[in-house]
Amino acid sequence: MTKTLHHRACHLCEAICGLTIETERDADGSQRILSIKGDAQDSFSRGHICPKAVALQDIQHDPDRLRQPMRRSGDSWQPIGWDEAFALVAEKLADIQARHGQNSVAVYQGNPSVHNYGLMTHSNYFLGQLKTRNRYSATSVDQLPHHLVSHLMYGHGLLIPIPDIDHTDFMLILGGNPLASNGSIMTVPDVEKRLKAIKARGGKLVVVDPRRSETAGIADQHIFIRPGQDAALLLGVLNTLFSEGLTRATTLPVAGLDEVRAAIGEFSAEAMSQRCGVPAEQIRQLARDFAGADKAVCYGRMGVSTQAFGTLCQWLVQLINLVTGNLDREGGVVCTQPAVDLVATTSGGHFNRWQSRVSGLPEYGGELPVAALADEMLTPGDGQIRALITVAGNPVLSTPNGRQLEQALDGLEFMLSVDLYINETTRYADLILPPTAPLEHDHYDTTFNLFAVRNVTRFNEAVLDKPAGALHDWEIFVGLAQAFAARTGGELKPTMSPEQMIDMGLRFGPYGDRSEQRLSLATLRDYPHGLDLGPLRTNLAERLKTADKTIQAAPPLLLADLRRLAVQPLPQDGQLVLIGRRHVRSNNSWMHNYHRLVKGKPRHQLLMHPADLQRRGLSDGQLVRVRSRVGMIEVEVAASDEMMPGVVSLPHGWGHGRPGVRMAIAAAQPGASANDLTDERHLDAVSGNAALNGVPVEVEAA
Q1: Does the keyword 4Fe-4S apply (predicted)?
Q2: Phi-psi sector, 360: left (phi>0), alpha (psi -120 to 50), beta
Q3: Helix axis angle, 556-566 relative to 230-243, nearest 10°?
Q4: Does the pLDDT at position 404 exceed 90?
């Protein structure tokens, strides 16, 4: 028997923590994992690890994980060979498009797609051949407002300024809970120590959230806010910065600040207090404290994106950093300079070049908002979706009005899923193609190095052998592309492996052949613990992708949306509203089939303030019915004074007890799907992003 130590990053969340994995190989060549620990030699994560990384071995050994292509036959599943599967997909999709047009086939790509570089490099090798405008992804139930604002202001949807958390004196967090998420559009391993370090050096951490979250629990100040009203608070802060002369000059080229100042003149702290539920003087003091700090960061994450004014929120976050002189400044927010630079090598994107057929929602970067997907399947007429491809996604549990989507999936002519499991969505597929497991293939973080709080890079070698007969995800897409091209007479350009693409990206990147570092894939293989390329540095002026190389502070689209907020009715007294929540042991819907991640104290309950329980004659631990416009669930309620009165919280991703799901541990867990309550009509009107927070609900005894 031979023992081997491997070093790689965990890919299960955005923190990309370094791991040390010990394996053992028997005389017959078989391998097993002996341990997974944090890598103390990783300068970025510094030995930090969370429970998800340890569960990588559970994914590897899960008996429910699919290991060969499976074709559905009634209520059962039968193995099918790869070539036969590829030919079947080509035949079905080509036939459907021939009869109903290119847009009759739709694509949905889930969150794990950006955690797997084979999907990033090769999924479009096949999907691009379909030439469909019905492309969807998890982006529009998560971060679309981030990308749209960067596109409008900076000229590229990936040019997102990142908090310089290691050097700031004041960090304001809205709608984010890094202690549960490990950072989000802020790749920040060991985040708790980094946040506590702000306080240790005399700085201040302020969290704005309708719930006293884990991150709020370690903050200097926690401010309760009505769900869906963060834009009002941010407008009150920005108005105060202008009206009290608290702005600071910047050397960046900026256009439109005078227009912004004029447009927000009526949105005073006093006027906005009625909307957001935060006292006017507290809003003003928050603005003064932020402006008074030498180096400050305003960071708004998922909670402010997934609401009716999500794009407005992200624009205001950028403006607050800009007008206080904290944009593109050490200790403020700074854009990364990654070794593989997607900003430099891709276009800035486009917005609203076409709209969804039924609801008229705008595309961004070639994708339509996923809230439109079910209607596009269910509504008859020219362009109706007849076939669907899902890639590493479970939209039944992760997108709004999951029950409506179930109905739509059940009526498709054909469905293909590239996935490891038969889950709540893939159970409707006609064919499931499973790739190799995470530790059986190499990996490079093209996305999360772009959002990191330091400039870092590493190449992750495979830990375990590729099983006989298995295919990596990129090989699946090459096989599908070849079969579809042969069936339709299309021509394919030559391709190469993902690692060859990364080598080219490194060599032509900012630290490549023309730099003193001369990075290549061979170089990174000499740094198994990763390579630190230094702190974030001022660089926005030269990286701007706008036509005139100027920051566009006043996009007309966003100035116009201020009027929508101004005329929005004030929140109703006594109305309960729903928000989500995250947990460090979970990531959306797909980590509930591993015992070590679901054991312990249950976390599926509906959290509710004790006063709200008493008002409705309910008690802690009782089974309750929760109703919204679109549906009803039954779930256990838990009394919690960490909730703002009038607000209830339910984590999404649960509700696995649906027929046909083959995930035994997950199906045995209690809980219901929050997205059986969220509303496909409840949207950010600018971007079409789903407004998953602030959903009106009623709660009663079951």
Answers
A1: yes
A2: left
A3: 110
A4: yes
